[in-house]
Amino acid sequence: MHKGKGMKFVGDSRITADRKPNVPKDYSEYPGRTEAFWPNFLLKEWLVGAVFLVGFLCLTLAHPSPLEGMADPTNASYIPLPDWYFLFLYELLKYEFASGDYTLMGILVLPGIAFGALLLAPFLDKGPGRRPHQRPISVGMMLLALASVIWLTYESAANVDWESRAETNKPVPPGEQAAIDTEDPGYAVYENSCLSCHGDNLQGGAAGPSLIGIDKSAEEIATIATEGINSMPPDQFSGTDEELQQLVDFIVSVNEESGE
Amino acid sequence: MLQKIYDWIDERADITPIWRDIADHEVPEHVNPAHHFSAFVYCFGGLTFFVVVIQILSGMFLTMYYVPDIENAWRSVYYLQTEVAHGQIVRGMHHWGASVVIVMLLLHTLRVFFQGAYKKPRELNWIVGVLIFFIMLGLGFTGYLLPWDNKAFFATQVGLEIAQQVPFVGEELKTLLAGDEKIVGAQTLTRFFAIHVFFLPGALFALLAVHFILIRRQGISGPL
After folding, report:
1. Shared domain check, A211 and A139
2. For residue A258, what pLDDT band results from cuts at 50, 70 and 90?
3. Which of B222, B35, B137, B191 is nearest to A35 (CA)?
4. Cα–Cα distance for residue pair B101/B90, rounded to 1 Å
5. Which member of A18, B106, B182, B194 has the greatest number of CB atoms within 10 A?
6. Is the ipTM of this complex over 0.90?
7. Any idea which positions bind heme c (chain A) (predicted)?
8. Cβ <8 Å between A32 and B78
């Protein structure tokens, strides 16, 4: 850089008056087929990014993000579950050596060792060799940790019935609880036969899904009430045909109101 | 025209050296997927950053509708999902991006680990990278509560109970996060919102800056 005597500045600033040429560096002397980052390589990177984005958007469109019913702290039957990337830590706490008196093992010692070792890997694995077979201990530890994490996540996720969870926890549109007429003769029948599983506002519960926003005809509802469906056993409804009719009319009317 | 605008700014601010510092660096053959197909493993880091950018942009749009308040949080998300044009897509991008970023981050970490690229002189950048991983997990944990649905509420409750069991500082840690010794409620939601939207992203940007500056100063690790 030009310094000292004879330097010209723009006005009274510290910006030098002679402009530098805006030309890319020459990489022809570099080893192999070295390429300039700008713009040659960046364009290729954007191609990869574009393909990735298309795949990502397809995933987003094919699977809308889930939303369960509004948080209800009084719901004692809800089985909590963290997001999938925390499942392995959650599953770890179910083992005998990591729960009860040994909880500290599960919440601090084991994760602390694993993540601490990850953080300090460069100081634990100080040898000069970079190839995996030159550092069998660190590579072996990583493979072991990876296998444990995958196994724990699998163990945790395989025991969850994701579909029925999503079904029973469907969101109830706001403002629809008010539409339920507890004076309706059908509600009395509902109270006797269905309320214990489907909730006092038809909102659903741990044992039964919400009955609001269902896409079923009156005949189908009558059939389900007497014969059951999926995990719902038959003969949940016990009463006269007239009561059955009142029940079905009630459920259908609630759904018609909420559909408006 | 553009050239004239550039020259006008350059004469006053001397931006050419800054621009050349950013644009001029070499890409060695062994990391270029155009020459070696297996070099696609070097894309994981860049793609992670790409998903982070998606998360920042979609998150900015989500806050246009989201209300961090226990009465309205769930309703605002439900409204966004059902009424707002493309709201479902924007929330979907943020929701799936949160998972994809963890996957890409894991792949990037494994690439660096199995190539032994964290060895001298790159120890510091590895540590910064693992810290970024922790920040991401923190963002996942705090963001999970914000829709205020049942799975959010109960997962956070369990998470806070686990934090509570940490010896000596457990109670304080839980109160710090939840805003109350016992209740997981309005205070918890606003705290998690603030942590998710201001504290952790601030830390993330600082660490990302260090990560990228270190890469540029040290260059990418050589072939095995």
Report:
1. no
2. low
3. B35
4. 16
5. B106
6. yes
7. 194, 197-198
8. no
Q: How far A214 CA lies from chain B's nearest CA (Å)? A: 17
Range of the domain at B143: 2-218
Number of structural domains, chain B? 1
| Candidates B78, B120, B150; nearest CB to A174 | B78
In a domain, B172, yes or no: yes
Measure the CA angle with vertex B61, ends B55 and B67; round to 5°. Answer: 110
Report whether A198 belongs to an annotated binding site: yes
Residue A194 counted as an annotated binding residue: yes
A82·B184 Cβ contact <8 A: no
What is the pLDDT averaged over residues A77-82? 90
Compare A192 and B85 and report the one with higher pLDDT: B85
Which residue range forms the structural domain that includes residue A37? Answer: 24-63
Radius of gyration of chain B (CA): 21
Please report residues of B whose CB lies closer than 8 A to that of A116: none
Alpha carbons B167 and B14: distance in angstroms, whole number:
56
pLDDT at B186: 94
Last residue of a domain, one of A160, A186, A203: A160
A223 CA: distance to closest CA in chain B (Å): 31
pLDDT in tens, A94-108: 999 998 889 999 999
